[in-house]
Amino acid sequence: MTCRQVVELMTDYLEGALSAVDRARFEQHIAGCDGCTAYLAQLRMARKVMGKLADEPVPAAVERDLLEAFRTWRSAG
Amino acid sequence: MGEASFDSELEALKAGDEAAFQSLIQRYHSSMFRLAMTYVGDRGVAEDVVQEAWLTCLRSLDRFEGRSSLKTWLFGILVNVARARRRKESRILPFSSFWRRDDSDSRRPTVDRSRFGSDGMWSDGPQSWDNIPEAKVLGDETLQHVRSAIDALPQKQREVILLRDVAGLEATEVSSVLGISPANERVRLHRARSAVRQMLEEYLS
Predict the structure, then answer these.
(1) Smallest CA–CA separation between B93 and chain A, in Å?
(2) Could you identify which of A69, A73, B36, B62 might form a hypothetical disulfide with B58, taking C-beta atoms 3.0 to 4.6 angstroms apart as the criterion?
(3) Each residue's pLDDT tens digit, A5-45
(4) Chain A: residue nearest B166 by CA?
(5) Domains in chain B, number
(6) CA torsion sign, B181 to B187 to B192 to B197?
(7) Among B184, B52, B29, which residue's Cα sits nearest to residue B105?
(8) Has this prediction a pTM greater than 0.90?
C-alpha cells in the first residue's frame, strides 16, 4: 500500500469497516510510516476537537422555554 | 453508557423528571441547532425547528418504546422536522446555497496529490502535533476554526459529521437517521473529516 492509498482508507479504518486483510495491511503500513502515523493521529485529534463543540452552553432563554414546555407536558399527562 | 442507564433515563423522562429533560437539553441542544442550520440556513428558523423537534419528542414520548437509542430517536425527529421546514421554505425563497456544486459522494482523493511523490509515498508529509500543547489544540480559537470549517462544508457532509463527530451518534445510527447506506455515510464522513483535519493542519502549523 502507498501513503496515498492509506490516507483514503483512514475513515474506514477508524470506523471499523475494513476487512481483516485490509486492516492488517493498513496497520502494517502505519507501523513503518511516520507521515501516515501523524495523519491518523491528526484525524483522531480532529474528532476530539469536534466533540467539544457539543458542550456549548444552551442559551438561558431557550432552556427556560423548554423546561416550561416540559412542565406543561407533565401536567397535561 | 450501557443499556441500563439509557433505560433509566427514558423511564425518568416518562415519569416527568425535569432534571432528566434538562440534562438531555444540555447534551444535545447545540448539536441539534447546528444540524437544523444545515437545512434551513437561517438562525431564527433553525431555532424554531429545534423547538418544534423538542415539543414533538415530548408529545410522542409515551409511545416511544426505546427500540432505538433516545439520542437516535431525538435526532431522527429533528431531521424530519428540519426537512419538512426546508421544503416549505424553499417554496418561498430560492436557496441558492443548496444548489452549489457538491462533491460529497465522490471518491476522489481527499489529499492534494502534490504532497506525494511519484511512488505514492509522502513527499510533504504531515508534521506530528505531539509538540503542540493540548491547551492550544483544544483551545477556544481552535474550536472557532473548526466551527467555520464545518460550516463551510457542503450540506451532505455537514449533516454526517455533525451527527457522527459532534453529536457522537454511532455510525449505524447516523445512516439510519439520514436514510443513507453505511458505505455512503463513510464516504461523506471521510471527505468531511479530511477537510477539518486539513484546516487544523494549516492553522496549527
Answers:
(1) 27
(2) A73
(3) 999 999 999 999 999 999 999 999 999 999 999 999 999 99
(4) A51
(5) 2
(6) positive
(7) B184
(8) yes
Q: Tell whether the model's pLDDT for residue B43 goes beyond 80.
A: yes
For residue A76, the model assigns a pLDDT of 86
Q: Which of B73, B96, B119 is the last residue of a domain?
A: B96
Task: Report helix, strand or coil for A56.
Answer: coil
The cell for B47 is: 431555532
CB-CB neighbors (< 8 A) of B203 in chain A: none
Q: Which ipTM was obtained for this model?
A: 0.94
H or E, element range at B15: none
Measured distance CA(B77)–CA(B64) in Å, rounded: 12
Mark yes or no for CB contact B193/A47 under 8 Å. Answer: yes
Is residue B158 within 8 A of residue B38, CB to CB? The reply is yes
d(CA A46, CA A35): 16
Q: Which three cell numbers stand for residue A60?
A: 438561558
CA–CA gap between residue A35 and residue B184 (Å, rounded): 27
Residue B177 sits in a domain of what CATH number?
1.10.10.10
